[in-house]
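Exercise 3.2. Students should predict the tertiary structure of the chain below and write it as structure tokens, then compare their answer with the key that follows.

Predict this chain's 3D structure.
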Amino acid sequence: MAKTGAQHLKSLQDGRCVYLNGKLVDDVTTHPAYRNAVGAAASLYDFQAHPDNIEWMTFDSPTSGERVNRCWQLTKSYEELVARRRAIEGWSRLSGGWLGRSPDHIASSMVGQVMGLPVFEKHSKERAGALMDYFRYARDNDIYMTYVIINPQADRNKSVGEHDDEFLATGVVDEDAEGITVRGAKMLGTGSIMANEVLFANIQPLKPGEEKYAISFAIPMNTKGLKVMSRKSYEESATSSFDYPLSARYDENDALVYCDDVKVPWDRVFIYKDTETARGQFQDTYAHYMQNYQAMTRLMVKMQFQVGVARRMCETIGTMGIPSVAERLGHLAAQAAMVEGLVYGMESGGGMFNGYYVPDRNLMYTAQVLTQQLYPEFITSMRELAGGGLIMLPSSAEDFTDPDLNRYINATQKSAIGTAEEKVKFMKLAWDCIGSEFASRHTQYEMFYAGAQFVTRGHAMRTYDWERSSDLVDSILDKYSLSDTIGSGDKLAAE
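Answer key:
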């Protein structure tokens, strides 16, 4: 039997330390800042466990024999990769792509790490064994994982080991026969309020002498000394689901995670004081590619959703007959289809890596480079299509309860395709897509979750098949020469 939503909710009632507005949150499953987002996460598991979905959403764990989500599958063929993507797509469609750190994201990263297990074995057979054992545990229990792989921003002119506080970032304080003790912070703990466990690692490069930070481990969210400092909750600020339909449901939250002398057992430590392996954990395995292949699948769904919102806006305000509007919608549709095509291209252009079938790396990075620019441009286009209609809406759903205000709303909120209530309901959704605080966070997220643009462009540069392009240039150059054009030197001398 596959994991259910009820099982996930129960697993979160574990005494974890989550802080919000100066207070310790007693239960994330019931707190008004998190309960709906947590419920949305739980609904993913209910969806996969439903009899209609269990076959295509899950597979038999090779160790336990139980059904677990396909995001844990180590794909051996093109067909298995496509089946795995369809499961990721299925989960994404439940939120319209607005849950960026759903359980399949870090599971995909763990799958990619296991695909590159020799990278860890080169560092330490023992540490590689710990990673493999943990992967089996996480897979067999269908664990919801998050990760923290970025050091806190402080003075960007300094490397992690050059700050006055040597434990600004998470580093090793001590070790003994049982494990290591770590202290310091990491970000961005997206989804940590509703995850079961958190992976600590380093996506940023480390220098010689910074070995104490070159660590990777996974621990439960309720581990003693682990503190989760939540950002403002957009769900808590949402006055109603009618006024903020996305903010009220899908604010997965971001958090700074701090280790206050946390003890990590050796069987949870995957990298220990090795800067080269810390770098290779993502770049030399298939971790970075698999996690961002999941992200592109999720973004594909989100772009489909946004295109639908853009068209509905134009239908609602009656601008579909304007040629420039049709042209703009066509451009948005082409951009959304481009993302979809790149996802399919990653699959069909994939190949074997250590016995596993994996997506094409360069097409994945190509998609990242393009979408980092595309998404904010997409939002701007939607704003231009909407005009002032997104601003001139009733203050809240409560306005409908007053008879006079209700009459004024019906007199002023006219629509080409529906009632005043239908127009307000939809336009509130559109605002939560492109204009609310929740929407602003998502624009920032889509621009930077994969790293700064120079980082993704560097990956695209590194993984492109430059030899193929150079060979094409040479093939044309080889077709002609100067002597073919003006004759041999002997002929020129005779003349």
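Discussion points: Residues 5-283 form a domain with the Butyryl-CoA Dehydrogenase, subunit A; domain 2 fold (CATH 2.40.110.10). The mean pLDDT is 93.
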